[in-house]
Queue: 4 jobs
Job 1
Amino acid sequence: MTESFRFLGMPQKQGPSLLTKSVSIYFGSGLFAVDPNARKVLDGFAQTLGVFQNAYVQVEGNTDNVGARPANVTLSKQRAEAVVSYLVERHRLDRGRFVAVGNGPDRPVADNRTAEGRELNRRTDFKIIKNAAAAAIAGPGEAPAADPKGSEPTISGDIDRRLIQSVIRQHVAAYRACYTAALAKLPNLSGKVMLRFTIDAKGMVTESAIASSTMANPAVENCLALVARRMKFPPSPGAPIHINYPLLFQPETP
C-alpha cells in the first residue's frame, strides 16, 4: 500500500499554474501573533485563494539577519503557522491545502545592512501551486506503477491500516505541495520516501522523520516530515504507535 503521487504535466510558467505572492505582514519584535493590520492583508489574500480553489499553498516566513539564526528560523516558522491558522479559522479554508515553512534569514530580497532592507526581508511569501491536471493517487484496490520491496507500511502498535491511509489522504494536498514546489525547478524529480512517525495516546503525532528516501531532496523530505507532524488520529490506548509509511512521487507526461 504505497501512496503514489503522479503529476500529469508540469505546472506551466504561463498563466496561473504557479504564482509566488509576496505579502508584507509585520509582527512585533519577537512576536508571531497576527495583528489587525495583518488580518486585513490576509483577508484580501483569502479572496485571491478563492480564484484558485483547487490549489494548495506554501506559506514561507522570512526574517532579517538580526539575532541568532536558529531563533530566527523558529520565529519565521511560528509566523507562517500563525498566518495559516488565521486563514483556516477565519475563512474556513482546508488546512490540508497549506504547508508552513520557516526560512529564517536565508532568503533575503534586500540588503540587511540597511533598516529599509531589513524591513523588506521581514516578509511572508505565498506560493500558490496549481497543476494543469489533477494528481492521481492510488486508492484502495488500485495498484501503483510498481510494488518494490518496502512498499507496504510497517506498524508497531494496534491501529487499523485503513485509518492510517484515511488520515494521510486528508493531508494529501500538503504532501503534494512539498513535491510540486520542487518539481517546478527539477522536472525529473521522483523517488520513494519512507515516512516514519509516532502517534501518542491522544492521537497526536509526536515525532516524524524520513526513514529512507530515493529522492535525495532534503527540502522536500523535510517538508513531508513537517506535514506529518500536523496529522491527528483518534485516541489510542495502545500508544505509542510507530509507523513507517511509503510515499511514491513521480511526474508523468500527459
Note: Residues 1-18, 131-150 have pLDDT under 50 and may be disordered.
Job 2
Amino acid sequence: MSVSETIIVQQPPRSIKSTTMPQPPYPLHPSVVDKLDPQYVAFYNKYLLNAQQVHYQPISASRVGGKIIPGGSDNVPVGRTQDVSIKRRESEGPDVNVRCFTPEGEAPYGGWPAMVYYHGGGWVLGNIETENAVCTNMCKRAGCVVITTDYR
C-alpha cells in the first residue's frame, strides 16, 4: 500500500464515561469580565449566575411554561388579553391556539396595528405561556396588537 492509499480506521472508545451536566453557579470567565458593560455584569450576577441554563436542563422542565429565560421580566399591564382557537380549514389536526394582546386605551383611527410573534425554541422549547412577558412588553411599547401562536 502506498502512502496515498493509507486507510484510517476509527477505533471504538475504550470506555464510555457517564457525563453530568454542569450545575450553577456559572461565573463569567475572567478574560471577558473587563470587556463587558458593568450594568450587564451586575444583571448577569443578579439573575443568571445561579440559574440553571436552559440547554442544561431536561426538556420537560423547559416545556412547563413560565419564564424560560432567567431574568426575564414580568408581564406588563395591557388593555386586553384574549385567547382564541382557530379551526383548521386546509389541514387535519387540532385547532391552532393564539393569544392576542391589545394595548390600553382607545384604538387609533383605522384600528390598532398588529404583529404576529412566533416564539423561538427550535420546535422543542416554548409554548403560548412562555412568551407573555415579551408579548406584553411589545404590545405596550410598540402600541400594537401582538398575536402569538401555540404552534409546537
Note: Strands lie at 80-86, 96-102, 114-117, 145-149.
Job 3
Amino acid sequence: MKQTPRTRKFGETIREIVASILQEDIADPRLRLVTVTAVHAAGDLSVATVYVTAHGDEERYAEVLAGLASAKGRIRSLLGARLHARVTPELRFEIDDSVDEGFRIVEALKTVPPSLLADERAGEDESVESPGFGSEDDADSDGDPSREESGA
C-alpha cells in the first residue's frame, strides 16, 4: 500500500485508538502485553492493516493472532465509536517481525569474530587524526585540555 500523508495520519490515529482499546477494553488473556507497532491504511481508508508484536515465540504469535481474530468485531466496533470517520475500516492483523529481526541482527553482531574486527581496524589509515580541539601537548595526562599542569 502506498502511504500518503492522509493515510499515514489516519493510520497513526487508528494505531493509538486500537492500542488504547487493547489495553483498556479487551480482557482476553491472550492479548496481554501486545504492542501495536504500526497501522497501514489503504488509499480509500476502507482497510487498515494493524501490525502487532508480543514477547515470545511462534506459538505466542499464533495465540495473539487467534485472540485478535476473536476480538476483531469488538475492536472494530469500539474503533468506530472513537474514530469519528464516515466509514470504519476493516481491520487485518499481522505480526510485526521487525523487532525480532532487530534482535537477530544484534545477536549476529555479537558473534562477529574478534579477528575480523582487528582486520578492519588494521586497514584504517592511522595517519588521519581525529578531530579535536587541541593537540596532545595541550592536554594533561587524562586528556582534558582545560586542565593544564602548572609548573609550580
Note: The radius of gyration is 26 Å.
Job 4
Amino acid sequence: MVARMAFRPLFRVLNGARRTRSWAELKLLLRERLFPARPTTAKDENPPPILFEMATAYWVSQAIYVAAKLGIADLVADGPQSCATLAIATRSDPSSLFRLLRALSSVGIFSQVEDDRFALSRLAGPLRSDIPGSLREILITIGEIHYQACGELLHSVRSGSSGFNQVFGTSLFGYLQRDANAAHSFNQGMTNLSSLLAHAVLLAYDFSGISSIVDLGGGQGELLRRILESDPEITGIVFDLPHAIQSTTRVPSNGGQCSFISGNFFESVPEGADAYLLSGVLHDWTDDLAVGILSNCRKAMAKNGRVLIVEMIVPDTNSPSFSKLLDLNMLVMTGGRERTKSEFHALLDAAGFRITRILPTMAPQSIIEAVPQ
C-alpha cells in the first residue's frame, strides 16, 4: 500500500522539521520506508528445516535483547572494539560475549571485522540509545516482560485471557505502576516509537482547521508535541494515568500550548476538544472496553468534533502482515486485539460514530477518522 502525502501536510512537516531541527528523524523514517535495511550476510550452506528455524527465532530475539541491555551499540558507535574491551565495559564474560556477538553478526546485526573485533552494522544502528528513532528501550521491554508473557500464549489461546496476568499476577498497566524500571523502558520505548510515527501521521493527515486536541493515553506526549510544533495555533492536552506522565517535562519547542492531565479514560475524558487522538490505545482493550472509551469521547467532544485513531489494520485477506502477529502479542499482553476494517466499522458504530476516511501512512499504522453519527 502506497501511503498518501498531501501537499499541505508535506509542506507543514518539512517546514516544521526545519524549524524544530527534527530532520534526522524525518530522514530516518523516509530511509527506512524507501530503503529498508536488510541482512547482508551470506546464506547458510546447510540450513535446518525452515519450520525449525522459525521455531527457534526467539534465540535471535533474546540475543538482540541482551545486546540492547548491555549497550553494545553505544560502545561500538565510534568504531570497532575488541571483545575483551567490550567485556570489561559491560562486566561480561569475554568468551560468552564473543559467542553472543558472533551469533548476531551471522544474521547481520553487528559486523565481525576481525577474529575478535566487532563493529556497528546498519541493522544494529537503532540499538544505539543516543539517536533519533532508537529502538533500544522498546527492545529491552520486548526482551523482558513481553518475552515472559509470551511464554503463556498457550494459556491465552485456551482461556482467551491475558498471559501477562498469568505470569505477573496483575495487568500490564498495573505492573508498570509498581515497577519503576519496567515503566521507564516501556514509556521511553513508546516515546521513541512515537517520534517516528509522528512524522508519518503528519505527512498523511492535514490538521488545519483543528484548534484543540486531546491525546488519550498519550504517555509522555511525543506524538502530540510533534503535531503542535507543526501547527502552533493548535492547543493540546495529554491525558493518561499519573505514572505515565509524572516524569514528563518536554514541551513543544515552538512554545505551543500543551498541558498534561492525569485521569482514567474509562471514567471520563477532558471536554470540549475538536479532536480526540487515540494512537495505539484501542488495541490494548476488548471491544466492550474500547467502545466505552469511544463513547466517553463522543460525550465530551465539541460540536463537529472527531476521533482520530492511529492503529494497524489487519487485512481481510490471507496475506502476510505484521499486524497478525501483533494481534497475538496484544492477546498475551493485555487481552486486547488488532482489528480489520470491518471490525473498526462495527466498533465505532457501537459508540455512535461513522468512519469518514481511512488514510494509510508511511508507517505500518493507518489513521481512521470518524465523526458522530
Note: The CA atoms of residues 109 and 303 lie 51 Å apart.
